[in-house]
Specification:
Blueprint: H1 3-31, E1 44-54, E2 57-66, E3 71-74, E4 78-83, E5 94-95, E6 104-107, E7 113-120, E8 130-134, E9 143-147, E10 153-158, E11 162-163
Parallel strand pairs: 5-10
Antiparallel strand pairs: 1-2, 2-7, 3-6, 4-8, 7-10, 7-11, 8-9
Signal peptide: 1-31
Domain DUF4232: 39-137
InterPro entries: DUF4232 (IPR025326), TAT_signal (IPR006311)
């Protein structure tokens, strides 16, 4: 075997070894998520936007973005209050439920999370202007309020918080 062929095999072996080590480290980083404190009201920015509709329902995405740090949400937003422009609570029925084993979701700069609110397409629409709710978090004072984009018809249901905004 000539010298240049041996050098080529040696270079390929080094690249393969380094690639395997990098993949192993990436796997370990994913297996050990960031440990952070529960999200409080000042730790996240919350917005709502229309997402999609189908099968007689509209879906609204509640998006949680970092206010600068890293924190954790787990479960379903609770104690939802929909209000009109004057701040008066509106009578919108809620179907509640909470997953038994909700996963912790890390919110950090560049790592948003989201939850979906399902409303009916048909029915009496309420003039919602604001949504207030308790974050799915163990932090005290974790109640937030955000603008709501359009009138809705109930009843509504809410999903658990999930990573990303898809």
């Amino acid at each position: 075997m000539n010298a240049s062929l041996r050098r080529g095999f040696a270079s390929a072996a080094v690249v393969a070894t380094m690639s395997t080590a990098a993949l192993a480290m990436a796997g370990a980083a994913q297996a050990n998520p960031i440990v952070a404190a529960p999200c409080g009201a000042n730790d996240v920015n919350v917005t709502v936007r229309y997402n999609d509709s189908g099968m007689g329902h509209s879906y609204w995405r509640v998006v949680f973005t970092s206010a600068g740090g890293t924190c954790v949400l787990r479960g379903v937003p609770t104690d939802l209050v929909f209000a009109d422009d004057s701040g008066r609570a509106l009578p919108i029925q809620q179907i509640t439920g909470s997953p038994v084993n909700a996963e912790a979701v890390t919110v950090a700069p560049g790592r948003p999370a989201s939850s979906l609110i399902r409303t009916r397409l048909e029915g009496e629409r309420q003039p919602v202007a604001w949504l207030s709710f308790t974050l799915p978090s163990e932090a005290r004072g974790a109640r937030v309020t955000t603008e709501w984009p359009a009138p809705i018809a109930g009843p509504i249901s809410v999903t658990e918080v999930r990573p990303g905004v898809e």
